[in-house]
Amino acid sequence: MTALAPATSTPARIRPRRTWAGVLIGVALPVLAVASLFIGVSEVSPAALLEGGPDGDAASLLLLSRVPRTVSAVLVGASLAIAGLIMQMLVRNRFVEPGTTGVTEFATLGMLVSLVLWPGMPVFGKMGVAAIFGLVGTWVFLRVIRQVPVRQLVLVPLVGIMLGGIVGAVTAFVAYRLDLLQSLSQWSLGSFATIMQGRYEYVWIAAVMVVVAWVAADRFSVIGLGEEFAVNLGLDYRRVVAIGMVVIAVITAAVLVTAGMIPFLGLVVPNIVSLIIGDNVRRSIPWVAGLGAVFVLACDILARTLRFPYEIPLGVVVGIVGAGLFLWLLLRRGSRAH
After folding, report:
1. Nearest to 300 by CA among 260, 272, 252, 327
2. What share of the chain is helix, strand, coil (3-state, %, to 5)?
3. Which of 94, 48, 88, 123 has the alpha carbon at shortest distance from 244?
4. Crossing angle (nearest 10°) for helices 281-305 and 67-91
5. Based on the number of CB atoms within 10 Å of its own CB, is 275 exposed (0-12), middle (13-18) or buried (19 or more)?
6. How far apart (Å, rounded) are the C-alpha atoms in residues 280 and 104?
7. Under a CB-based contact definition with an 8 Å cutoff, are residues 288 and 85 in contact?
8. Under DSSP, is residue 308 helix (H, G, I), strand (E, B) or coil?
């Protein structure tokens, strides 16, 4: 696997990139957030808000649906991108994220288990079960790649994709046998179409995990250099890995119960940020969170407008855009794999 060394200083050639990228993210995020509030089948516009007043239909729709949807898109994009960044540090490989390591599939299996064994369980309980299964999935993946004799850059995510494929097939088979495929499908394609006030608040837990990642950012930078190096510096390697596993599992579960599966987000966003400012985790986290939020907001707006008044599942749009970016990153970095 490729070690990810944290940058201790900012090269002069990187500073201009950071400036324009920061300006772009800083402008795009509020613009897309405001646009998201006023895009949809039902009319919500500044004129309608002024005409109807605080008790009008437009104001009610804005507060009950559009604001929760926009906040969810921002938090999901930011937190899932951070989960991908932490996963890449734990594995020391730039081509991994919860969706390419089997973590998302394990969390989905946890959702299915909760549906089968505890059908009346509240959403918070389902998220807890999904987080436990996601934690197990992270541990299984880390154990599996330790046994891989040749740890090439592109081989590690392939192992994760195969692991996720096995778990996903088992989940689909069990759901089919128990006639739960339709229930399971609501998480298989990411979408914010059903987000309303009272149905998105759990994604704030993912935001708390982003804060945890920020607090432990320097430790994640160190373990990106390898276990031996981290231990020589006096770092409790296993403890930091455990913190990272919990952060990844909880974010994955919170996003899954809120919006469903969103592929490639945690892979492409940290890689783009790495190309701009380097690999220091503490320096990268605000950029990764901001770009992740912009990416999801943009894709959500596309999902709502491409076939207006119909809506394309967000997972489809993110999957197409993310897959294209993934291939570009793969071809760009493939020559440096070792």
Report:
1. 260
2. 75, 0, 25
3. 88
4. 140
5. middle
6. 26
7. yes
8. coil
Q: In this structure, what are the phi and psi dihedrals at residue 51, rounded to the nearest 5 degrees?
A: -70, -40
CB proximity list for 219: less than 8 A, separation 6 or greater: 235, 240, 243
- 111 class by beta-carbon count within 10 Å (0-12 exposed, 13-18 middle, 19+ buried): buried
Distance from C-alpha of 27 to C-alpha of 316, rounded to nearest angstrom = 26
Give residue limits of the domains in the chain: 78-334
pLDDT of residue 243: 92
The series of mean pLDDT values per 10 residues for the chain, 338 residues long, is 46 62 86 89 75 75 87 93 92 85 90 88 87 91 79 77 91 89 78 82 91 91 84 86 92 89 88 84 90 94 87 88 82 55
Query: Residue 122 corresponds to which amino acid?
Result: P
| Burial degree of 332 (CB within 10 A; 0-12, 13-18, 19+) | exposed
As given in the structure block, the two tokens for residue 57 are 């239909």
Structure tokens at 256: 């899954």
Q: What distance in Å separates the CA atoms of residue 289 and residue 154, rounded to the nearest whole number? A: 25
Full-model pTM? 0.86
Cα dihedral 173, 175, 181, 184, rounded to 10, equals -120
Q: 121: which 2 tokens?
A: 């369980």
**Which class does domain 78-334 fall in?**
mainly alpha
**Distance separating alpha carbons of residues 285 and 267, to the nearest angstrom:** 14
